[in-house]
Design goal:
Elements: H1 9-15, H2 22-25, E1 32-37, E2 41-47, E3 57-63, E4 71-76, E5 82-84, H3 86-94, H4 101-109
Antiparallel strand pairs: 1-2, 1-5, 2-3, 3-4
């Protein structure tokens, strides 16, 4: 997936200087999050079981309008913009992984928010 950041020595050095929010570092297998990409694309991620990765990286399955079945990759947790509940993730799936911000806001507000 072109939005993912595969950990390399260079990316680890660059990203380790920025702080992660507590909810980002707490992401574990089975947790959900979303990423709003500047080009107007919204990515919906589910954290998968990871092998040994640096602390700021997770193996994930990312869904979007362009990739509804999802793509597995390794992402830098700095990319994660908001945590999601399983219900919010299910609504995103039901809405077809929308990239429209208003549609995303609608289903995100339909249920109790995930703890950030």
């Amino acid at each position: 997936m072109r939005y993912a950041t595969v950990p390399t020595e260079d990316t680890i050095l660059v990203t380790s200087s920025r702080r992660l929010a507590p909810w980002q570092t707490a992401l574990k297998p089975g947790d959900y999050f979303l990423v709003v990409v500047q080009e107007g694309v919204i990515l919906y991620g589910k954290v998968l079981l990871s092998k040994a990765l640096p602390p700021q990286f997770r193996r994930v399955k990312i869904h979007s309008e362009a990739s509804p079945k999802g793509d597995e990759d390794v992402v830098d947790l700095h990319m994660a913009d908001l945590p999601m509940t399983d219900r919010q993730f299910g609504l995103a799936r039901m809405f077809g992984w929308p990239s429209d911000l208003e549609v995303m806001r609608t289903f995100m507000s339909m249920v109790r928010p995930a703890r950030a």
